[in-house]
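Q: I'm writing up a methods section and want to include an example of the input and output format. Could you take the sequence below and give the corresponding predicted structure tokens, formatted cleanly so I can copy it straight into the document?
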Amino acid sequence: MSHTALIPSHRKPRRNASKSALRAGVAGGVLSTIAVAGAAGPAQAEPVTQTIEMPTITAGLSPAVAASAEATQQVALDLETQAHEEAAATAAAKDAKKAKAEAVRKAEARKKAEAKAKAEAQAKAEAAERASRAAARTTLSTSSTGSSSSGSTASETPSYTSTATGSAAAVVAFAQAQIGDAYVSGGTGPNSWDCSGLVQAAFRSVGVDLPRVSQSQSTAGTQVSLSNLQPGDILYWGGAGSAYHVGIYVGGGQFVGAQNSSTGVVQKSLDYDPPSGAVRVL
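A: Here is the clean output for your methods example:
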């Protein structure tokens, strides 16, 4: 045996012929296919022209959506209408409040004007009464002076106590209780009077409310004859409704009256200053 027989050879083992042939055929086929494909050129992709209709997922909701939109619109209109109505109501309330305040202001102004006019009218009436009474008193004083110088006692205060009863007696007693008080134009007591103020207070003492001035007091009751006088009758000087002086008949041909600033409240005979007429209230 050779001494190299057991040494492995460094040469590569020979490949199997069948496997080599198979591999070569596959490779050639692949290469041929690539070559043919390259010769034919790249394939052109055909464009897609078909439209695919997608289902509308809200198609079934259209009536409900429309109804909801309509309801929303109606609510909006209602709210707008309500807002307009509230604004109109607020404006109307403001206008009404303003109109009421204006009406109250005008009413108060009218009331004040009427009160002022009434006060002025009363003041004028009292002024006219005072003027007329002053003129009458001047004439009376002149007449009384002449009578006194001739020895007449007509101007002297008679001593007479009324025998009246009831309310008339109370009126007479009130008037006689003021004899000696001062005469003050516009006076209504308790210590100074003018003629109509004394008469008014005397009747008020028995619950009878008379007008304030002589003109009105001269028509406050039933007209009576001077020949048929009773205690408590109101005597007046001047015309009925235009009298310038009043007094109270106490009986016995005498009266009590706030005559003038010189005499004050006195009790005198009717002869001292004959009245023009009389009215009966009680």
